Amino acid sequence: MSGTVAHLNTGPTAEVGLEREEHFTTDGQQIHAAKFGLWCWLLTELLLFAGLFLTALVLRIMHPQAVTEVAKHLKFWIGATNTAVLIVSSFTMSGAIELSRLGWQRGMVRCMLATAALGSLFLVLKGYEYYEDWDEHMMPFLSSRPYVLTQDPSSRLFTDLYYITTGLHGLHLLTGVSILLVMTWMASRPGFLGRRQNRIEIFGLYWHFIDLIWIIVFPVLYVLNR
Amino acid sequence: MSPSDLVLGRVSEGVREPHPGRTTIDREPDYLHDEHTLRSWLGSTDHKRIGILYLLSITFFFIIGACAAGLIRLSLVVPNGQIFSNDTYNKLFTIHGVVMVWFFLIPSIPATFGNFIMPIMIGAKDVAFPRLNRTSWYIFMTGAFFTLFTVVVGGVDTGWTFYAPFSTTFSNTWVVPALIGVIVVGFSSILTGLNFIVTIHTMRAPGMTWFRMPIFVWTMYATSLIFLLATPVITIALILLVMERAFHIGVFDPALGGDPVLFEHLFWFYSHPAVYIMVLPGMGVISEIVPAFAQKKLFGYRFVAYASIGLASLTFFVWGHHMFVNGESETSAVVFSVLSFAVAVPSAVKVYNWTATIYKGSLKLDTPMLYAMGYIGLFVVGGLTGLFLATLAVDEHVHDTYFVVAHFHYIMVGGTALAFLGGLHYWWPKFTGRMYPEALGRLSAFFIFIGFNTTFFPQFLLGYLGMPRRYHNYPPEFQLLNILSSAGSVVLALGYLFPMFYLTWSLRYGKRAPANPWNAKGLEWTTSSPPPKHNFETPPTVDFEPYDYIAREDRV
Question: Where are the transmembrane segments (chain A) (predicted)?
Answer without folding.
Answer: 38-62, 74-97, 109-128, 161-182, 203-224
